[in-house]
Structures are given as structure tokens and as C-alpha cells.
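Recall that a protein's primary structure is simply its ordered list of amino acids. Everything else, from secondary elements to tertiary packing, is in principle encoded there. The following example makes that idea concrete.
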Amino acid sequence: MARITKVNGQNYTKKSGATFSTYVPKKGPNKGNNQYITNGWFIRKKDLMNVSCVTTQKSSVKKSGWMGHIICTVVNKSTGEQTFFWGSMQKSTGKVVIEKLSMVVNPKAPNGGYCGTFIRSNN
């Protein structure tokens, strides 16, 4: 859950985080294929939300380095409610964007990753 760390000599409560890893399934349709998973968490209105984004059979890397067909599961740990969304993942960093929720899960962000609101700039 939220951890307290020191930033510039002051206590700071972390409100989100993310990790990125790879694995090789031993069963199922992706058996033997390298899969990518990005996990994130954030606190919203005192509820802990977990986000898990995993590559699927249809996931493939485009020239830009992004993969589509990423299944993202959002779980409210307080109520147990689960919802599923599709996202896009940047293969090199594990960053996942869920357009429908305007959310990003970025394991390479400073201070242990970021999971939360994403606003696309028009620059």
C-alpha cells in the first residue's frame, strides 16, 4: 500500500506505483512465448486500485515500438469490483496507455513508477 519516504527532508506518502516484467507461460495459447506484464496501483478516494496489463496472443510490435491488444484488468481492492479494458504498451519501457480511462501505467517514472491520469499534449 502507500509507503512513506523522505523527499527533500520531508515525509512524502506515495500514492501510486508500477512495475514491469516478462514471463514465459507453461500452459495456454501463449505457451513458450515471451509475455510482458505491467502492474500498477493507485489510491483513489481511499480505495486501493490495482491495474494489471498483460500481452495477449494478438499483441504484436509495430514499427513505433508500441503493441496493441493489451488486456488491462482494474480491480478495486475495497469492493472487489473488476473491470477489463484494452490498452497499448511500449515494449521497451512497459508503459501502458488505457485510452478509454485516460490512464497511464508507467514503471519507468521517477520514484517507483506512476499509475494514474494521462493527458495527451498536442505539441
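The two ends are 35 Å apart (CA to CA). The CA atoms of residues 66 and 90 lie 4 Å apart.
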